[in-house]
Amino acid sequence: xxxxxxxxxxxxxxxxxxxxxxxxxxxxxxxxxxxxxxxxxxxxxxxxxxxxxxxxxxxxxxxxxxxxxxxxxxxxxxxxxxxxxxxxxxxxxxxxxxxxxxxxxxxxxxxxxxxxxxxxxxxxxxxxxxxxxxxxxxxxxxxxxxxxxxxxxxx
Amino acid sequence: xxxxxxxxxxxxxxxxxxxxxxxxxxxxxxxxxxxxxxxxxxxxxxxxxxxxxxxxxxxxxxxxxxxxxxxxxxxxxxxxxx
Lengths: 155, 82
What we know:
Chain A is α+β, with helices and mostly antiparallel strands. In chain A, about 25% of the residues lie in helices and about 35% in strands.
């Protein structure tokens, strides 16, 4: 498939994430399936170190973050030729429990084309290489959440 | 000497006490050399230099990389978006 004209949407925003608007932007006449991953602020964590979260405060190195989101979209297209549209959006600022913070959506003609795996790959890569951080504020205090991935040369 | 701009994010921004710094460095300075300079001149950053991620002109950079003139560099911890 020619990828040059396929819709790819990627940005950092302080505004509410508008799923319908994003879906419209990545839906072609030939699209029949979208896999959407949304992450939200979890107020009550039960797995591992159980705790409550009052809010998360996100920041990003915006120009690099958007460039790396574009790179993640290119990596998706290199792995799944079936993908038509891609949206990668991260909301930053102070975000409270239940609020969507990130959205990855991939569209394709059919659901059995790798579209689920493509969206999964997108969120996994965002968490590895896109320069965004969050500080967690809980009743017990506040701390920066740090990832554990060290990017390699060329990433 | 070459002028460069350093941006700090997350824990690095808090420890540096600033979002950005302008520095003059020798033209052959590497990323490792810059880390050593920052550790020596900014005690609050010394501990962070062991695990910091560094970028040059918005690409990840590693110890041996020579820093070009007018580089926009950033220092930050492993990312935690999502």
